[in-house]
Amino acid sequence: MAIQDSASQIVKYVGGKDNINTLIHCSTRLRFTLNDFDKADLDKIKGVDGVLGAVIAGGQCQVIIGNDVVEMFDAVQSVLGKGFKGNNGPKPKQSIGHVVLDFIIGVFQPLVPAIAGGGILKALLMLVAMFGWMSDKSQTYQVLNLIGGAPLYLLPLLVAVTAAQKLNVNPLVAISVVGVLILPDIATMLAKGTEIFGLHVLNVTYSSQVFPAILSVLLYAAMEKFFTKYSPKPIRIFFVPMMSMLITAPLTLLFLGPLGYVVGQYFVNVILFLNTHLGWVATALLAGVLPFMVATGMHKPMIPYVVATFSSMGKEALYLPASLAHNISESGACFAVALRTKDSILRSTAISAGISAFFGITEPALYGVTLQHKRALSSVIIGSVVGGIYIGIAGINAFTLVGPGLASMPMFVDKSDPMNLIKAFIGFGISFAVSFTAGLFLWKNEESTVDTKEEKDINVSEELDAPVSGKVVALSEVPDDVFSQGLLGKGIAVVPSEGKLYAPADGKIEMIFDTKHALGMKTNSGAEVLFHIGLDTVQLNGKYFDVKVEPNQEVKKGDLLETFDLDAIKEAGFNPITMMIVTNQNDYSVDAEIENQADNEEIQPVLNIAKLGV
After folding, report:
1. Is the pTM here over 0.90, yes or no?
2. GO molecular function: any one (predicted)?
3. CA distances from 409 to 398, 420, 427, 579, 589 (A)
4. pLDDT tens digit sequence for 151-189
5. Phi and psi at residue 25, in whole multiples of 5°?
6. Active-site residue, 334 included
7. How far apart are the first and last CA of the chain?
8. One of 26, 61, 336, 609 is an active-site residue; which one?
């Protein structure tokens, strides 16, 4: 039930069912294409149980789940309802770059499981043959090898499905159109030389190609929409696919197929040119920046390059080898943190994330450990770069599109070069050892925030009054995860009975939001206090608020800071609950006094804060 609740909250915080255009998932993330990305509340999404993080990147709202992504995807699908196909209503204008990137990711991302599964099967077969456990001449081996190669051979058909789904056109007709490219009889005719309408058709082998299929489906989508719009309804069921196929297939054979083939070759050659001229430097640099690329989801645009490289060369020598260095460095850094940290919760998280990264899934490590701690992130970068240098110099090649990790190491099996796998394992070991060692030396435990006087020297203590009169409640009762989970810090909340905000202590005003719904001050003891009037009241754009102070103004306890129209805020549909939070919580112990005050609407001390010293 918990995962179902989380799924409901995710749908709510991405803007609701009506704001979702498409939804797919990868190995660790839910990927939403939204009609209006401004409606997505990333802070609230991050606060949902089971969510490791959330970003808007690559034309998608990406919700990082980790190993439970399939279960969460199913739960979200359940919330959206059976047969959900997205809301294709009017969408805000997006840059061409965002549209293209969203389309590319939407086409290539779903291909990964099939390609990875088949590739690993072929790699394991080669490994079995290398050890002499099965002859590569046996019929069993050959049949199994063909099974493993099927996804790559049938890549044009797989692309036809994903492209058609992305463009919301009939996938079966799209497969039929693209299937023409790999028909055995067509291939035979092209090899002998053939013409269509007197025009010579270029002899191209389209099996394992992706760009010809993409161009073909793009044309088919335009044809389907055109003929659907203008054909009579009684004959639409056969007339639309007939005319679409009649136009699309010949044009693909004559023009789009050869063009797509050239584009694919050029795309691969550009990457190979950079890799050839930069050599190991390219691998090391890519490995070093992968933590940031993965964190923002910008590593996904590398998939088309990898797929195109596999289809033309059967191997890849840059992105996947660099990913090996990065993935294992994440694991090494996490295990170092687990060994050095005194925080039991962080230790548990680091162990779990380290194991996950060891097997090729890095998001739990990134979002749970390394991105939150600069020293851990530095350890990852050091391990990635050093491992990437070795991997680049060794010239390691990958033969399967899958996240490098212990279980997927057969992806580096090369029948013609048995040392390729050995070198990959050496790179694995170097990346882990360097990041682990760097983590042990660089890690520094943060000051404990235990509130006992035996463990901390209390330098300064202070009492903070309630900022408004009303019913004082625990912060955990605020119906907003950002506050209730203490993401901004510790404090209290007040259900106000009067629209006046007072200074809880002597200090100085540090900040006033333009929308006037929030302001911050620093007390004379150094505590940084945030006042937030209402939930989502930022949408009022300052209406009903009147600030009485200015930034850098000195104030005394009890001074009036701001007034707000309590009744008008309620009538506008907003919850006026007001929060007072100590945001520099690592420097202070914060104890709330809310017992026996719930029904007392007098302003009185509600927080005891004490500055922590070593």
Report:
1. no
2. protein-phosphocysteine-trehalose phosphotransferase system transporter activity
3. 9, 11, 11, 51, 48
4. 888 989 999 999 998 888 999 999 999 999 999 999 899
5. -140, 155
6. no
7. 44
8. 26
